[in-house]
Predict the 3D structure of the following.
Amino acid sequence: MIDVDGVTCRYGDVVAVDDVTLTVPDGEFLVVAGANGSGKTTLVRTFNGLVTPDEGTVRANGTPVADDLVAARTAVGMVFQDPRDQLVSATVGADVAFGPENLGLTRREIDRRVDHALDAVNMAGREDDRIAALSGGERERIAVAGALAMEPDHLVLDEPFAGLDEPARRSVIDRLRGLHRAGTSVVVVTHDLRDVLALADRVLGLANGRIAVDAPPSAAVDRLPALDVRVPGRFEADGDSGAPADGDAEATADDSAAGSAAGRKRDR
């Protein structure tokens, strides 16, 4: 479980997250939505200590994140918007092994985790492939595998569909669905609700660093447009296909309108 209690984060005079309190239960699929500058990325980065709150406390599985960053980053895996920001090795196997190696695990346990993580993202047997030769979708899957190799209880993904073509998007969505069904908590930060709204148990809508919407998808869809978030034209609960409903609108927020200089500064 992730518990956020009275968290405020500032960048100079800019308040990015403003007195937020929330709980992410074990096994939940949570979508965090909002316009550029709403505080989404800053908020989720407090979950494992990548951002330290100026006020308030975050706990991962009952332990204050600030007290044990290693435990927090083991419990809460993070996949950044651009996988290049976290791919650190030349080959697939070495990259996925990087996190477990830093936990001081045995070679046998590291290899087990790497094999399991690559299998989970349909990249088994590709350990020797060079990162530089992978497609954008494959790099995204390797970034997910690297987080999975830490065997987190919670997986947080920031804009995981940015820059992916349709086959790659479908592959990532299928992996997230499988992880959720296996019991992993999944938190997706996204402007694009076409694919994940039907998977979500709950939608959190942010505006100016505060929670403006906290509701099941069926109740949230009518309130999200007021936050400059576009939603599918027709919402249906998740089915096995994971395909969006016919006639769905593009569910991307209007970055050009919302992404002012002040907004970009706020949502770092």
